[in-house]
Amino acid sequence: MEARLRLLLVVVVVAGLCAAVASAAGNSSVVGYHGDPTFNVRNYGAKGNGQTDDSRALMTAWKAACAATGAVTLVLPPGTYYIGPGTLKAATDLKRFGNDWVEFGWVNHLIVSGQNGAAFDGQGAASWPFNKCPIRKDCKVLPTSVLFVNNNNMVVQNVASVNSKFFHMALLQCSGAKISGVRISAPESSPNTDGIHIERSNGVSIADTTIATGDDCISIGQGNDNIDVARVHCGPGHGMSVGSLGRYVGEGDVTRIHVRDMTFHGTMNGVRIKTWENSPTKSNAAHMLFENLVMNDVQNPIIIDQKYCPYYNCEHKFVSGVTIKDVQFKNIKGTATTQGVVLQDVDLRYKGKGVSSSKCENVRAKYAGFQNPKPCP
């Protein structure tokens, strides 16, 4: 797709409606950036009255814009646009959805930029009781609010996501993405409402963002390379994680992860690497640096869990097929709500001449089970 779309969203939550979407334009005669052609959804039949289903009109305008060449602007004049799955508006009836609600896919140089409090409201509260994933492995996954799939060199900035049904935002097979100024919120009790999930992507940066949710603020899944996270405030939630990894056949390596200058407040975890045991495919999680992190009343500031299993009945009979190597934690400070550090069943072997070793400074640790290398005194 050669068209480079610039979508300006301003979302206003209106009583009794799922969401209202308008562009930053004050009228329908808006001119595109630098004289670029514009596609006004009103010209394609959108009413913007909060009652008429504008799904078909917005999709028609979107396809017309994508068929153009060069840089184009998709314009949504001020109004209340009631739209269904696959466009820009969440309903509460789960029967209307597939795997996601809003999908931006196969676009080069996509810009999603919000102004004046732009937000995606997932209306998730009505759906959370139907989420059985925290207790059932074969659960039906609820729709992600905003999915970015197969986009190259995109920018997402100054938008908000509230009360998603499942993940707030997900990046799948994206190359080159800059996310900044994003605000994500859902109650601490909301299940699986990960803030930003990344999978099979490369060259992704997330910066200057605030995430308060019921699950991982940021989750970096399998097949990712060169992910940079900076100046993100996380809390409440489950912290920031690499994983879970090693659950499915054909998972790719996770490499070159840099997390820096993050603040965690009241989260269950700080930074966590989690892998399933008995992985069907061998993979690596390598070259990761976590530095300059502040933990404020965090239960478990640092976790490496190679027997991850969130369900009630877990046997823990097998080892993980994910090899973790070259991981550094630097300058991590703050307060924890659990006593000390507990290391249990650690087996990290050095692939080279010599043996692995451990070093501790300013830590009071407890040990259980097998320990390799030998623990600090």
From TrEMBL:
It catalyses: [(1->4)-alpha-D-galacturonosyl](n) + H2O = alpha-D-galacturonate + [(1->4)-alpha-D-galacturonosyl](n-1). One of its GO terms (biological process) is cell wall organization. InterPro entries: Glyco_hydro_28 (IPR000743), PbH1 (IPR006626), Pectin_lyas_fold (IPR012334), Pectin_lyase_fold/virulence (IPR011050). The lineage of its organism: Eukaryota, Viridiplantae, Streptophyta, Embryophyta, Tracheophyta. This is Exopolygalacturonase. Keywords: Cell wall, Cell wall biogenesis/degradation, Glycosidase, Hydrolase, Secreted, Signal. It comes from the Eukaryota. It comes from Oryza meridionalis. The keyword Oxidoreductase does not apply.
